[in-house]
What we know:
Strand content: 25-35%
Number of strands: 5
Radius of gyration: 13 Å
Bound molecules: tetrahydrodeoxyuridine
Amino acid sequence: MTDEELMKIATKAKEGAYCPYSNFHVGAAILCKDGKVYTGVNIENSSYGATNCAERTAIFKAVSEGKREFEAIAVAGDQIDDYTFPCGICLQAINEFMPKGRVILSRNGEIRSFDFAELLPFGFRL
Length: 126
Ligand code: THU
């Protein structure tokens, strides 16, 4: 699975976003070490704080299905001229499950892969 393919899956997943408050659709696709891919979307709530981001939805789906080892996660938001960068809570969730993984983001159609450690260099890791 290439980074481009994973980003394509994340972009398609975005259509399932539940975002009546922001109208900002986000899709994520997480690639497990065994090759399986789980998607996620942002799921908003009228009490804004209860919103779940696309990244965490994807991670939680995969973890709840027994997956523990991950290669990369791609994130696609509605904006095209800048990366849809994971929020602090999602960085923490990514840190928990894939501190050595990669985060794939897109800007103006150009796909870029970041080592997660670049995004949260001082994350707490046992
Ligand atoms: N959002 C995500 O799902 N992932 C991100 O990386 C950035 C933000 C969602 C949260 C909220 O539903 C909407 O995008 C606007 O912030």
